[in-house]
Design a protein that fits this description.
The complex is a heterodimer. Chain A is an alpha/beta fold. Chain A has three domains: 140 residues, Orthogonal Bundle (Fumarate Reductase Iron-sulfur Protein, Chain B, domain 2), CATH 1.10.1060; 158 residues, no CATH class; 119 residues, Rossmann fold (3-Layer(aba) Sandwich), CATH 3.40.50. In chain A, the strands form two sheets. Chain A has a four-stranded parallel sheet. Chain A has a four-stranded parallel sheet with strand order 6-5-7-8, with helices on both faces. In chain A, helix 15 links the parallel strand 3 and strand 4. The radius of gyration of chain A is 23 Å and the shape is globular. Chain A starts with 12 loop residues before the first helix and ends with a helix. Chain B is of the alpha/beta class. Chain B has a single domain, classed as 3-Layer(aba) Sandwich (Leucine Aminopeptidase, subunit E, domain 1), CATH 3.40.220. Helices cover 38% and strands 20% of the residues of chain B. Chain B contains five helices and seven strands. In chain B, helix 1 packs across helix 2. Chain B is globular and about 45 Å long. Chain B starts with a strand and ends with a helix. Classes of the chains: A alpha/beta, B alpha/beta. Chains A and B meet through helix 9 and helix 14 of A and helix 1 of B. The complex binds iron/sulfur cluster (2 copies). One iron/sulfur cluster (SF4) binds next to helix 4, helix 7 and helix 8 of chain A.
């Protein structure tokens, strides 16, 4: 009666590797989350996929979690070894089953952590979904886009494969723009300046698609008479390791940023507006990189807010004369508690700010989180789930949605286009720069 | 930490550099079986080298794991590229295959008159060979090859960052003892 019914089944090489590595990834927090679910269903309606697909139970967080939980129970929990069918323990045998797991871990969850904060038992599904992704990536099972972006960041040093010469040329071009806008040929975007107060790091999207945000930040630093610099390397503060579940990538990327700040003897690392970059570089990175960082690290939202409060820059909110709502990035709000500072800053630079509901830690994902923007095969599913976000945006009645995250900018733009909303996306850096009184 | 060893009048060294932006006879690109350049260093080859490399590869692939082929490097600072198809993502017999891939890359280089060649820490990073293991296999296999007599005069292992450089330096120190 205690015989395990699957013990003689042949297992694929990759499936065995996944099981072995799962054992190495278990820590107290992970085991707690894997063991604690009582299937009460209280997290179900917190997931935007569930709300957009009410008839489909495969989107429920607990259902998705059970896909990896059953493997954990079968191999690493004594109840599952002895009474597998009683506790829902089941092993994994084939590469096809691993592909199914991929479809769930990458294609049915944006790791937004909304279910996590709504679980009374403290089950952090998003964290072990990330672990599941990492197990699959380790054996080469991942969406093509994840493969593409991970390799860019491993080998070129940034998520978008921006070469050093392209990065430096863009900064040079933005420096010329800055000189024109502030009417001062001596205005600079300093590169690799030693002993600066601020080492400013960015999202590679700013080089590729949104150099205006670099110019806006440079203008703010100029107005504040800041002693600042941008690094020639280690400038990408985003981290695809957070999305792919690859802690080694996470450590390598964060380590490059930290080492450059140390090499330049910078006093403070400031990260431009990016939720996952902020979470990775400020919170998770030191663990992944196994490194103590001895300098301060802050979001540019805090830097800009302090400039206004300390009178280092002056702003005129009448320059931003439209209507604005604010979208909290999942990583900023749910994982880093960065909810009040962006609102305080926004209220300094716009006159008509209207909250979106729900907001702060309860806000819904832009649907582009967890690296979803790079996984084109899941785009239809993502956009279908985005009906939740679209309704939230529309209900605000504003012309602009402001966010503090480059990833959310892309996610929100996709939602707005797909659902034909009459809205534009902007970031705090753009609004602060526009409101500057120089 | 050691950055250089002499092996039978040949030099094996490690340094932090961008392998796709280095003046050298040839560098090794850890390639895919279909020889498509893909992202990462492949993207750098496409951007810095221009369309020539991709065109040359069209007639050479697909190839098997451990195989190596050579192309020109288009407009890059290097003259040639050795596309070496190493093992990926914990596949079976990774160590054996990795050694063979490095040896095949060296042989292809030598038979094409390459005297100075750059390697990355083979298989580490995206393809998941643990860094210490990669550093050990890469340095030892190259050192062994040079010891057995070779026309190749200089091998440089290019590390992307300090994290990669340190284990390579440690391995070099062991070799020089
Ligand atoms: S994860 Fe938490 S909220 Fe969701 S079903 Fe399990 S115990 Fe209930
Ligand atoms: S983390 Fe977000 S997307 Fe994933 S199951 Fe939970 S609520 Fe849904």
């Amino acid at each position: 009666m205690f015989l395990m019914n699957d013990e003689n089944k042949k297992r694929s090489y990759k499936a065995q590797k996944v099981i072995d590595r799962l054992g190495k990834k278990l820590n107290r927090q992970m085991v707690g989350s894997l063991a604690a679910c009582v299937h009460c269903g209280m997290c179900t309606d917190s997931c935007h996929y569930v709300l957009a697909n009410p008839g489909d139970p495969t989107y429920a967080p607990a259902y998705k979690a059970d896909k990896i939980r059953k493997i954990f129970k079968r191999h690493y929990d004594w109840t599952g070894s002895v009474l597998p069918s009683w506790v829902g323990a089941k092993s994994v045998f084939t590469d096809e089953e691993l592909e199914e797991l991929k479809d769930t871990a990458f294609g049915k969850c944006t790791n937004c952590r909304r279910c996590t904060i709504n679980c009374p038992m403290g089950v952090d599904f998003a964290t072990f979904n990330r672990m599941t992704r990492g197990l699959l990536v380790h054996v080469g099972i991942m969406p093509e886009g994840v493969e593409y972006v991970s390799k860019e960041q491993w080998e070129i040093g940034n998520q978008m494969g921006v070469l050093k010469e392209q990065y430096l040329e863009t900064l040079e071009w933005q420096e010329e723009e800055l000189q024109g806008e502030v009417n001062n040929p001596k205005a600079k975007i300093p590169i690799d300046k030693m002993n600066a107060n601020i080492v400013y790091t960015i999202n590679p999207r700013e080089i590729k698609h949104d150099p205006r945000s670099i110019l806006d930040a440079a203008k703010i630093f100029y107005a504040a008479k800041e002693n600042w610099t941008m690094p020639s390397e280690g400038w990408d503060m985003t981290n695809f390791g957070l999305f792919s579940g690859d802690d080694d990538l996470g450590g390598a990327v964060a380590g490059r940023v930290y080492e450059k700040v140390e090499e330049l003897k910078g006093k403070k690392l400031v990260m431009s507006e990016c939720g996952h970059g902020y979470r990775s570089t400020r919170c998770e990175g030191p663990n992944w990189a196994k490194k103590d960082i001895k300098f301060e690290a802050e979001s540019s939202v805090i830097t800009m807010l302090n400039y206004i409060k300390e009178g280092k820059i002056h702003v005129d909110k009448s320059k931003n004369d439209s209507s604005y709502t604010f979208h909290d990035s999942c990583n900023n709000a749910r994982s880093c508690g960065l909810t009040e500072e962006p609102r305080e800053l926004l209220n300094y630079v716009v006159g008509d700010f209207r909250e979106m509901y729900p907001n702060r830690a309860e806000n819904f994902c832009c649907t582009g989180g967890g690296g979803a923007m790079s996984m084109s095969e899941y785009r239809p599913r993502r956009l279908q789930s985005a009906i939740v976000k679209a309704k939230q945006l529309e209900a605000t009645g504003t012309k602009y949605v402001v966010t503090s995250c480059h990833n959310c900018v892309d996610g929100l733009n996709d939602v707005i286009k797909h659902y034909n909303l009459d809205m534009k996306v902007t970031q705090l850096v753009n609004l602060v720069s526009n409101a500057l009184v120089i | 930490m050691s950055d250089k060893v002499q092996i039978k009048n040949k030099t094996l060294s490690v340094k932090q550099c961008d392998i796709t932006d280095t003046e050298i006879d040839a560098f090794v690109f850890y390639a895919r079986n279909d020889l498509k350049l893909g992202s990462g260093f492949g993207n750098a080859i496409a951007l810095r080298g221009g369309p020539t490399v991709r065109k040359e590869l069209e007639n050479l692939g697909p190839v098997n794991v451990t195989d190596a082929v050579i192309t020109t490097a288009g407009g890059m600072k290097a003259k040639k590229i050795i596309h070496a198809v190493g093992p990926k993502f914990q596949e079976q017999d990774t160590v054996k295959k990795l050694k063979l891939t490095i040896l095949n890359a060296l042989k292809v280089a030598e038979s094409n008159g390459v005297e100075k060649i750059a390697f990355p820490p083979m298989g580490s990073g995206f393809y998941g060979v643990p860094l210490d293991e990669s550093a050990k296999i890469t340095t030892e296999t190259i050192a062994e090859y040079l010891k057995n007599g070779s026309e190749i005069k200089e091998v440089v292992i290019c590390a992307n960052d300090n994290r990669e450089l340190k284990p390579l330096q440690e391995q070099l120190k062991k070799l020089s003892n």
